[in-house]
Design brief:
Elements lengths: L6 H25 L2 H50 L4 H7 L8 H13 L4 H12 L2 H15 L4 H25 L1 H34 L21 H28 L9 H23 L6
Length: 299
């Protein structure tokens, strides 16, 4: 489908442009700079585009995970229908329950293909390809291999469903064993790093104000160190810290997904909450420390 024929994509692009223009106009008005407005416009477009791509990929990944979780129950139900004496195509269609969504749509499509006379091996293989799930494809390959060797389809489905459930429980047990690592990583990226960066930015502001009040003294003595004005602005330090924190949060979220679920993609859903908590703690630490040092220094 072409972009011009897809109203949802057109609407999404219009929303991105409007939001970017509003933010860019506000930033340009505050900074009183056209260059700042252009930078904010480009940056907002990039951030919204990345968010849209991640949202689409995450929805696709969640769909695959739902299908993988429902697949063992589908195999068990189909095996029960076959043992009850139903034909293969009827057993498939009767196994398409709403609670298996979105797998139920693929099951119905597979059953219709079998009713039109297609062989079960190629139809199941195509179903695995459409699911875009490696686990489902491998499971179907095992079932097809068993059918080619003359195995009973009901027994094959029951054993495959039992093995899939056992593998799922092993994964859950492994995830519980690494809970301490998850807590440590989460605490490091949401509390430790923001706290240290918040302290660093406040110290830079304090030293800048303190050194600016020290008068210049001409002396011929050679000292191992000299006190001079800090040329780096505090705003640059703040922006640098925020960019570094966001990068750490993204990497840390992917690590959390890898540790807990075995795949980096699982950590994509943690990125937004982790970044929000991390930046919130960063600004909270800055606010508290600035309030404290304001009593002693003109910060």
């Amino acid at each position: 489908m072409k972009f011009s024929e897809n109203p949802s994509k057109r609407k999404e692009l219009i929303i991105k442009l409007v939001v970017s223009l509003v933010i860019a106009a506000a930033a340009g008005t505050i900074k009183r700079s056209i260059f700042a407005s252009v930078l904010w416009f480009i940056g907002t477009i990039i951030i919204l585009s990345v968010y849209s791509i991640m949202k689409v990929k995450l929805e696709k990944y969640n769909r695959i995970k739902k299908m993988e979780n429902a697949f063992p129950d589908f195999l068990q139900l189909m095996a029960s229908n076959l043992r009850a004496g139903m034909p293969t195509d009827h057993a498939l269609l009767m196994s398409a329950r709403k609670e298996f969504d979105p797998l139920d749509k693929e099951i119905i499509k597979l059953g219709k293909e079998l009713m039109t006379g297609r062989d079960i091996e190629s139809a199941m293989f195509d179903m695995g390809q459409r699911s875009h799930s490696q686990k489902i494809q491998k499971t179907i390959n095992l079932i097809v291999s068993g059918l080619k060797s003359g195995g009973n389809i009901a027994v094959l489905l029951e054993e495959t469903a039992s093995n899939a459930r056992e593998r799922y429980f092993v994964q859950k047990k492994a995830a519980s064993n690494v809970l301490m690592y998850v807590i440590f990583v989460f605490a490091a990226i949401t509390v430790g790093a923001p706290g240290l960066f918040g302290l660093s930015t406040v110290l830079v502001e304090v030293l800048t104000n303190v050194l600016s009040t020290i008068p210049e003294v001409q002396t011929s003595a050679s000292l191992p160190f000299t006190l001079s004005r800090i040329e780096i602005s505090s705003s640059f330090i703040i922006y640098f810290s925020m960019a570094f924190l966001i990068a750490i949060d993204i990497i840390g979220s992917l690590v959390l997904g890898l540790v807990t679920k075995g795949e980096e993609k699982e950590g994509a859903k943690y990125i937004l909450p982790v970044v929000s908590v991390s930046l919130g703690i960063f600004f909270a630490v800055r606010f508290i420390l600035l309030k404290y040092f304001a009593e002693f220094f003109n910060v």
